[in-house]
Specification:
9 helices; single chain; about 70% helix
Amino acid sequence: MSLNETDEEIILQYIKGDGNAFKKLIDRYASSLYNFTSRLVGKNEAPDIVQEIFIKTWKNIHRFNPLKASFKTWIFTIGRNTATDFLRKKKNLLFSDLESYDDEGTTEFSENIADENLLQDINLKRVEDSQFLNNMLEKLNHNYRDVLVLHYQEEMTFAEIGEILGKSLNTVKSQHRRAIAELRKMIK
């Protein structure tokens, strides 16, 4: 795969019949999409979500319009929407399961909920530990977490993030500032 090929050139190759061209897109974006979705849905579900993202991308590649957004923005929007749909389904299943629990099942369920007071006992030196940072991110509002992950991990601009999340540039910048402030509060 030539690193100089743009996404649009690869898509054009695929549309013209080069079956291997779509694999180039997968190779280019699989890792980033996995990292992004694992923060949204968890590491166990992320591979399935990424696979679903590429299936949706493959089915809709003819709808991609480079005049409206970059391919990266387009595929991450598909990723965000796919992860959101997954979480909605999971939430609905969870609530339907909870409604069917008897008193004993409810007790077992509540025993499995993590103790939120454990965060107070964490040594601040662990800030550099990626697991600690992941835990901190998980405690953030999902809007804040999405902005931080897309900006710092995926190295997207605030404008690109706004396109993916369907929010204005000012809203994204505001959520970024608030996310940083929330992280600072958690660390203190």
